[in-house]
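Person: At home tonight, work slowly through the protein below, taking as long as you need, and write a paragraph about the fold.
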Amino acid sequence: MQNSKSLSSFKKLPNRYTSIVLPFFLSIIMTFIVSMVSTLRSLGLEEFSLYVWMSAWAISWLIAFPTLLLVLPVVRKITAILVQPA
């Protein structure tokens, strides 16, 4: 219970930052997983190293985050066309 109390006392960012925060975390999580799979696939378990994975992740994230910032508004519009509002 103590942990949830400390999280609730955390000062939240204003809602206007959602369009930056969401792609920020999405890009971190997605590139982290995809770069690991890609690194394992190309090197194999025997040659896999944390250094190679983290360098692949960093490059992936540097590309993914700005790409998400540009693409997400378009994806939201396409989704709004295809999905009925609640």
Notes: Residues 19-82 form one domain.
